[in-house]
Amino acid sequence: MLKTVVIICDGRFPKSEYPRYLIRNADFIICCDGALRKFLRNSEAIFGERRLPDIVVGDMDSLSDGLQNKYSDIIVRIDEQEHNDQTKAFRWALENIKGVGQIYILGATGEREDHTIGNVSLLMEYARTYDLEGINVEMVSDHATIFAVTDTFEMDCGEGRKISIFSPD
């Protein structure tokens, strides 16, 4: 059975039920470094008890030394600065979790506009750069589901629903 991975970035933590449902039902939860605090604050409301993510990935520039020491057993520090923490977490998932069929990226929007634009644009880069054959990747917020389309595509979105299409080319 294919695994579902949720990557939680340090943007606006989801408050609505659908993204929280995705967190609750994930096989593997990865927090980018700064998102760990938000996850810890919200985990009891999501799971009914306090829970840790499976792993925390990033350069640790947004995580206090105290939290780094306390959770050192689940921290993967990647110091390189060529990629943001979302991409580091995405690559870590592809390289270390066998049988991934779905990746949901949450908390990638809603705080800083520059980070939102950068994170959303990375979806197309992931689709073009990585072998995602059989892996569905979606960015989900309280207000939208965003995904990259690299080929002919047909979608039944239902009557009255709003959609937007952006072309990076």
Q: Overview of this structure, please?
A:
By secondary structure, this protein is an alpha/beta fold. 33% of the residues lie in helices and 19% in strands. It contains five helices and seven strands. A seven-stranded mixed β-sheet has the order 4-3-2-1-5-6-7, sandwiched between helices. Strand 6 (136-140) and strand 7 form a beta hairpin. The radius of gyration is 16 Å and the shape is globular. The termini are far apart.
Sheet having the most strands: 7 strands, mixed
Rough outline = globular
The low-confidence runs, each spanning 5 or more residues with pLDDT under 50, are none
Helix content: 25-40%
Compute the CA-based radius of gyration.
16 Å
Average pLDDT over all residues: 93
Strand order of the largest sheet: 4-3-2-1-5-6-7
The SSE string, one letter per element, is EHEHEHEHEHEE
Strand content: 15-25%
Structural class: alpha/beta
Count, helices = 5
**Beta strand count:** 7
State the end-to-end distance. 36 Å
Features:
169 residues, alpha/beta, 5 helices, 7 strands, 33% helix, globular
Overview in brief:
With 169 residues, the chain is α/β, with parallel strands linked by helices. The chain has five helices and seven strands, in the order E-H-E-H-E-H-E-H-E-H-E-E.
